[in-house]
Design brief:
98 residues, alpha+beta, Ribosomal Protein L24e, Chain: T, single chain
Amino acid sequence: MSRRCELTGTNRQIGHKVSHSNIKTKREFQPNLVNVTLASDALGQSYKLRITAAALRSVDHRGGLDQFLLKASEAELSTRAAKIRRDLKKKLAETAAA
């Protein structure tokens, strides 16, 4: 399982650990990933996702999973999240037409 956020696409960063004597050693900065279950109001279903803590705050700030997915671009989402987004758009188009 990759260390990548399913909603924002945030993944590891490479940098240096710098000692007191200014010796630089390669290191990784891992994202703060958490396993969460988010509910979609429009689809009436819950989804288990592995997202960063910052993405969880963003989902809460935008008003839930549905609003976050509608505002997010398809390119930064994982394949699972992109499928949820497509299903959500299809469901909203059906309810708007009816």
